[in-house]
Amino acid sequence: MEKAAGKKPTVFRPPYGSHGAVYDRLVPYPLVLWDVDTLDWKHHDPKKTVHIAMDEVQPGSIILMHDIHESSVKAVPDLVKKLKAAGYTPVTVDQLFNGQLENSKSYASAPAPGSAK
Q: pTM for this one?
């Protein structure tokens, strides 16, 4: 992947979110999942993608979207605008977890501030 992208990966999203303890140990990166699935791959509707994300987002959420679909890419500006208006700050996964991600461990959302991990 480093050769193709020109940058070494730091996290891994298992295809379809499929993973398990036996396989997770084989992945030398933190496994990033999600807690908000916009189903963008299924409906291809930018407005619906934004609506689903805004209905389900919580502090620490990871929102799943697929940049291979033009409709998903089109949803991003409106989604970011609405997230910011609701008091959210979009960040990278590494920022969300303060750089404390562990290899071979899966993450679907960050704990809300003040809550137990």
A: 0.87
